[in-house]
Write a structure and sequence with these properties.
Helix content is 46%, strand content 3%. It has 156 residues and is mainly alpha-helical. Strands 1-2 form a two-stranded antiparallel ribbon. The structure holds zinc ion.
């Protein structure tokens, strides 16, 4: 009598880490929407810019991200170009905005655009890191939902 061992799981940590490519564009979009890059359902943050350690919907570990200073740098570049274009437009069209309008309006506009863009850019970056298995996303424990038995196999 021989005993055979079969793989009873459709996605084990080993093949998840090495075999299945992740859709980085989809993960980027989910991160931009401030959702879990794995399932797209769970919220990415528990506070403004504070990512959850684990996705509340699928259990994916999210604490492996290393966004660091990249989101603020990217935000500054984007907001700077938007504000620069608006300022140039106002100047070229001779809108004759008062000094006080420009001195107060541009910083407020810049702040609002930055506060809108920063969590989205950070989320997209976290999604990108997750998709490319950067840092410790490669060795992250798989959510329980991913370790379900494969169709047509039994666990016995
Ligand atoms: Zn999730």
């Amino acid at each position: 009598m021989s005993v055979t061992m079969t793989n009873t799981y459709s996605r084990t940590p080993a093949n998840e880490a090495g075999d299945e490519p992740r859709d980085w564009a989809q993960a980027l979009k989910r991160g931009w929407r401030q959702r879990c890059p794995h399932c797209g359902e769970g919220k990415l943050y528990y506070k403004f810019l504070k990512p959850r350690d684990v996705c509340e919907a699928c259990g994916e570990e999210l604490h492996h991200h290393r966004a660091d200073d990249a989101p603020p740098y990217i935000t500054i570049v984007i907001v700077g170009h938007i504000l620069g274009a608006i300022m140039l437009f106002a100047h070229e069209r001779s809108l004759n905005l008062s000094v006080w309008t420009e001195a107060i309006g541009y910083p407020i506009l810049g702040l609002l655009v930055a506060l809108w863009a920063l969590p989205r850019i950070k989320g997209a970056l976290i999604g990108y890191q997750w998709a490319l298995r950067m840092h410790d996303f490669e060795t992250a424990k798989r959510p329980a939902a991913d370790l379900r038995p494969a169709a047509g196999t039994s666990a016995s």
